[in-house]
Design brief:
Order of helices and strands: HHHHHHHHHHHHHH
Helix content: over 70%
Number of strands: 0
Shape: globular
Largest sheet: none
Structural class: mainly alpha
Number of helices: 14
Strand content: under 5%
């Protein structure tokens, strides 16, 4: 079970990540999606790598983590939002990473999923489905199929990155070392910009990318800085550290709070109104989170009590 300090850190991270979706939407108004992700990771890596030692881990873990998070998770997410995925709903759908993480952890790490965690996740699924079924405001959500599929691909990549961290940390522990997660995140951030700049050059003429970079407005600069420093370095540094010290089944469900803060932030900054079904869905997510993290209430437990 997470201690109080780590629980507080996790809550700060999910708040930063919830606002992250609104910031992404604002950034995409002035910068193409692949270029925005590439600049995010380039700024996260440089100049920080010159002040941090290379983590004690095989290079392949750095490479695949960078690919899974930078290209897989955020490359897919940014493109999905670029082609029609709303910020609030993106924050909801991406949380299917919890289920990918638990499945991957059960298969590759042989981690046990308890009955309370399963019950909590099923309750949270009900909330996610209820929110996802309704649009921001009123009516059904007109989400393009490619946007929906790219968002799920991003969620699966996030789940895969969680397993990569667990494996890298376990291998370091076997050698008597402790993986420096902040250094791991920073050095792995060197990987995504190269393929992302290549994707950007394919999707956008080179002249237009140069024009975008040389004419960034204040909102674009803020978005890139927030994504690099708050969401990437701080967020993933803390999150990966938690995953290195606790089972994925205890840490991953906390990310179910991200859609709550994501929907609220999108409502305030982007005027995406919350419907009654979204409020109810958010409440179900919180209930599922409580059950999966803390177990069933004592009044629901069977058998004699002491």
């Amino acid at each position: 079970m997470l201690n109080h300090r780590d629980t507080a850190l996790a809550l700060v991270v999910v708040s930063v990540w919830g606002a992250n979706f609104t910031v992404i939407k604002l950034g995409l108004d002035g910068v193409p999606p692949m270029l925005l992700v590439a600049m995010r990771y380039a700024l996260a890596a440089l100049p920080a790598v010159f002040f941090l030692r290379l983590p004690i881990v095989r290079v392949r873990y750095l490479f695949w983590y960078g690919i899974a998070v930078g290209v897989g998770q955020f490359g897919c997410l940014f493109y999905a939002m670029h082609i029609g995925m709303p910020a609030g709903l993106a924050s909801v759908l991406l949380q299917s990473q919890v289920f990918f993480t638990l499945i991957f952890a059960a298969i590759t790490l042989r981690e046990r999923v308890s009955g309370a965690q399963l019950a909590g996740l099923w309750l949270a699924v009900s909330g996610l489905l209820l929110i996802g079924y309704r649009s921001v405001g009123t009516g059904l959500v007109p989400i393009p199929l490619p946007a929906f599929l790219f968002t799920l691909a991003g969620a699966a990549s996030w789940g895969l990155s969680n397993i990569i961290v667990r494996k890298a940390s376990a291998e370091a522990a076997q050698k008597g070392d402790r993986l420096d997660m902040f250094s791991f995140v920073v050095w792995s951030s060197l990987v995504p910009p190269i393929p992302l700049f290549l994707f950007a050059s394919v999707l956008n003429p080179q002249e237009s990318m140069v024009e975008v970079v040389t004419n960034l407005d204040g909102i674009s600069v803020f978005a890139i800085a927030y994504l690099a420093f708050a969401a990437t370095l701080f967020g993933f540094g803390v999150w990966s550290s938690l995953l290195s010290r606790y089972p994925a089944s205890q840490v991953a469900p906390l990310s179910l709070l991200v859609p709550v803060t994501g929907l609220l932030t999108a409502s305030v900054a982007l005027s995406e109104e919350l419907s009654m079904s979204q409020w109810i869905g958010s409440f179900l997510i919180l209930c599922g989170l409580a059950v999966s993290t803390f177990g069933f209430p004592k009044v629901l437990s069977y058998g004699p009590t002491k």
